[in-house]
Structure formats: C-alpha cells, structure tokens
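Hi R.,

Here's the chain you asked about this morning:
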Amino acid sequence: GGIPPGHFIWVFGVARTGSSWLGAMMGDLEGHATWYEPYVGDVFGYAYYMRAGESQRAREDYILGDPHKEAWISSLRAFVLDGANARFPVLGENGYLVVKEPNGSVGAPLLVEAMPESRVILLVRDPRDVVASLLAAQRRGSWGAGEDSLADTDPDEFVRQRARMYDASFGKAWEAYEAHRGHKVVTRYEDLRYDTKGELEKIYSSLGIPIEGEQLRRVVEKHAWENIPERQKGPNKPRRKAKPGGWQEDLTPEQARIVEEITTPIMTEFYPGWERARATPSD
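And the predicted structure, written out as tokens:
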C-alpha cells in the first residue's frame, strides 16, 4: 500500500510565488492532498550543497559523501515515502500527493534523483515581484517584520541579499527540472493569475494525470483571489496584492536593476523580451 512514488508531485521554485495558492487548489482536487513545506530538501540540500565543500563530499566517511551516494539516496527515498505515508495514511495508492517545497528547493536535484518516477512543477515568478513581496513583508508593521529589519535600515542591501537567495534556490529547482526525465512542467505565476483554469489544465496534461474540467473549475473558483475575504488580504498581510508587475510601484529603479543583474539568466529564460519591456514604462 501507500502512496506510489510516481504519484508525488513536487512544487519547486522559491517562496512568494503563489505556491500556497497552487498547493491549495491542487490539494482540493478529488484524490489529492498537499504536504505543505516538509523542508526535506532543505535538510539534505543544505548539508550536501551548502555546508559540505567538494573535498567533504569526496570523503569516504562523510555520511552524504559521493563515494556512497547510492546508499544515502535510497535512504532519502525511504525517508520521503515513510514521512508521507505517516502523514497521509488514507491517501493510498490511487491518491496524488502535492509536495509544496519551494523553501526546500536547494535539495531539489537530490529529491528527483531519489524519486525519478515523481512529477515536477517548476513554479516561476518575476524575481522583481518576489523581492518586492519579501521587502514589503519585512518592513516595520508588516506581517513578517522582526527587530531592526534590514528592509528598513538598508533596503538596497536587503534587495541584493534576497535576489541572491532567489537565484540560489531557483537555480537548484531549475537544475532539478532539467535533470528530471519524468513528467514535468514549467508554470509561471503570471500565467496562473491570468488564466488559472487554462494553466491548471496545461499542468495536468503535462504531468500525465487525467482530471475533469468541472473539478478544476470548482477549485479555481473556491481559491480565487477575488473570493478571499477582504480582511484576509492587502498591504502588510501574507496575501498582499497578487498583481504581476507590482514591483514597479514597490522597488526603486536602482533596486529593480540590482534584482535584474543578479537574476538575468532566469529573466531571459522565463521572461524573454524583459529588457525591451523594461525600456517602455507601463501604463
């Protein structure tokens, strides 16, 4: 019994890209459940890619060392499967588990290597909007603010650091997507906002999972931004504006330039023509 490895649907990318919304819609479909932020990719990915240098990874004795990668990759597979089945015992072998893992994307290449049968969604959003969202979240008086936030004391440096984090996290998600031989699909937050049902249809068709249009229509309507109670959204709240291109109001020209410079390859791949669009002010 249990959930088959081929019925895992990973959502990789970065935070503040609409992954909670996508996860909620997919999790509400018949025979689906969503595992929110297991951070399993963070646990293994951070240890493997961030903490261990090349010489550490080459060591015979290092627990995540390359000489015995096959052994610990199969342990990682069991770790994910057991963790999922313990939490979703009733999903069973016909169910699909959506794993919302943007914050664990540093370990995405290891996760797809451990579970080659699984399916992958690479969720991307304009890095400028993501950084603008993070900046707004950390400012004094907002939902994510802490003490002496860099967002208030040195917003340009905050923007630089968050753009680098976007680049690192999304870079690993993208690497996993490229390496994965199974069912996979790229979806842009902007497309999901403009034509939610059409984009979900594209996702399910690319993932090779049959789903009825009526079911999709129901979850799209239930989770539409327009149907979220007003008190639960707006400035200083986690659900802030859901407006593609909002960075033009939120970032200074210099801050936008910082983000563009750090994330140029991502912008060019997923938002072709962005430089030209940049030159003409939007209405």
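The CA atoms of residues 196 and 244 lie 14 Å apart.

Let me know if you need anything else.
M.
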